[in-house]
Write a structure and sequence with these properties.
Helix content is about 80%, strand content about 0%. It is an all-alpha fold.
Length: about 60
């Protein structure tokens, strides 16, 4: 249904905008990655884990 697609698209867009708001520990995660000399792969994996756990805790 078109209304379902619009609803899901809107939720994804709002979620993406929400991720750019202050908070969510982005500064702490960046400091951790710098302090542990994390690789880009580590940062991507950490970002995915945080994204999924945050999303599913809200749902």
């Amino acid at each position: 249904m078109p209304s379902d697609l619009m609803l899901y698209s809107g939720a994804i867009i709002l979620g993406a905008l929400h991720a750019f708001e202050p908070g969510h520990g982005k500064t702490l995660i960046a400091a951790y990655m710098i302090g542990t000399k994390g690789r880009a792969v580590d940062g991507i994996l950490l970002g995915l884990i945080v994204t999924f756990t945050h999303t599913f805790s809200v749902i």
